[in-house]
Amino acid sequence: MRLLFTFCFLFIAFIPCRSQSGFQIDHNKRKIVIPFKLINNLIFIPIKVNGETLTFLLDTGVEETVLFSLDDKEQVSLYHLEKIMLKGLGGNNAAEAYKSSRNKLEVNGFTDKEHEIYLVLDQEFNFSSQVGIPVNGIIGYHFFKNHLVEIDYDRKKVTVYADNHPKIVKRLNRHFTKEPLLIEENKPYYYATVESAGKRCEAKLLIDTGNSDAIWLFLNRTNQVELPAKNIDDFLGRGFSGNVYGKRGRISRFTFGNHSFANAIGTFPDSTSIKSVNFVKDRVGSLGGEVLSRFSVFFDYPNHLIFTKSNHNVNQPFNFNMSGIEVQHDGLEWVKETYEDPGAKGVTIKMGTTNEGRFQDNLRIKFELKPVFKIYNVRAGSTAELAGLQKDDKILKINKQNAHTLSIEKINELLKSEEGKIIEMEVDRKGHVYTFRFQLKSII
Fold first, then answer.
1. Alpha carbons 402 and 287: distance in angstroms, whole number
2. Residue 171: partners with Cβ closer than 8 Å, 6 or more residues away
3. Domains and CATH numbers, the chain
4. What is the pLDDT of residues 283-302, one digit of tens each?
């Protein structure tokens, strides 16, 4: 999985941030429940910003709340703006942004009336196309900092509790694994045992719900982690400051909760891509959604604790996009479709001089807006590249199925489904239609 679906946006704001009181639960509620969309292991929730409902990625890997795409909204009011610059993953360039204060954020009775927001104006920084739904921003630490927060990946619900009710405490003690959680620079860290290429260490990892991969390891931060001998160079996606590159390979083992995971796919960003990141002491990597989604997780920031209980996905293998292509949503287009309307009079045709063979044509034509998908990146040496696919090819069909009937998630599931599977892809390249066939091949 790529950073296109990762979004571990760690940034430095060059203007100091004022402290915030944070979210509070309405006084008459013991808890609030927020349904979420889960796309490629990432959590998306609706939050009202000054009365306008926006979609946010819920990301423990960021401190401040960031807005970066408001194209689908007619009007969003933001107050008390001042210009700043942001830096993060992906090179040296800083992104122009604005800081806005005294905003009201609210979801289902969970409210912050004095919230600071960072608005990024660069339209290149917009990952709606990578997940297939409009996404307006990211929210992190201030959502979690005051309360016990449960993320149930199975039921696709976030629950925020007003206090540690005895029933909740009993449930956690009986059914969950309790471990210490370090909160440093307003982000959660966890010590996991990691084995790779014959080396074993206790690794300090950021727990990052905004990272859809399993585990990231930074080789320039420690000599106790080795790159697996079998690895590939890969484009990892885009961060605040540009493209991110690195390597991928399967690591021997790592731990989380009461489970030990073997043969997981490790991601190793190169030193250039992460040199602008502000690291806390001893941090060597991140744990992401590919692992977290195999659990129900309680984050208890006030008491520096994490509680985990595995779900039915815990023993699923760690799969990899074996095609070598990255696909993104590229807007909408009008598609003509025929459908049957049983109530329509249609056209009656008689065969001969009798009524035999009479039939009624109930077919109708309609136009609907459907998603368009294009190839965003092709990995060098991959089976897709060798077959002839190129960046910016518009996908028309996959295995004879019209692409507009699919979603980003379904396409990604297909591309990591099983080694040896044949993929036939029909594409439009500058007005010409081509068909390519390639085989999914596990190379790590």
1. 36
2. none
3. 3-179 (2.40.70.10), 180-310 (2.40.70.10), 325-439 (2.30.42.10)
4. 999 999 999 999 999 999 99
